[in-house]
Design brief:
Number of strands: 2
Shape: globular
Number of domains: 1
Largest sheet: 2 strands, antiparallel
Structural class: alpha+beta
Order of helices and strands: HHHEE
Number of helices: 3
Radius of gyration: 11 Å
Amino acid sequence: MSSLLKMDPHIVLSLVNTKLRDRAKSLDGVCEELGVDKHLLDAFLGALGYRYEPSLNRYAAVTPTSR
């Protein structure tokens, strides 16, 4: 498991979304840069109530209408 997934999930969310906004064109690029499996990251942030939205290129809070 990546050491990233041992960090506070809110910090990971902020870090990943900042990288997606500032440098990466895709989630795959961020996962490669951070050395974390995309499916593990999705599950980790999903447990916090967020999911990756490709059209926004960021993790966004899951709302009742977006499920």
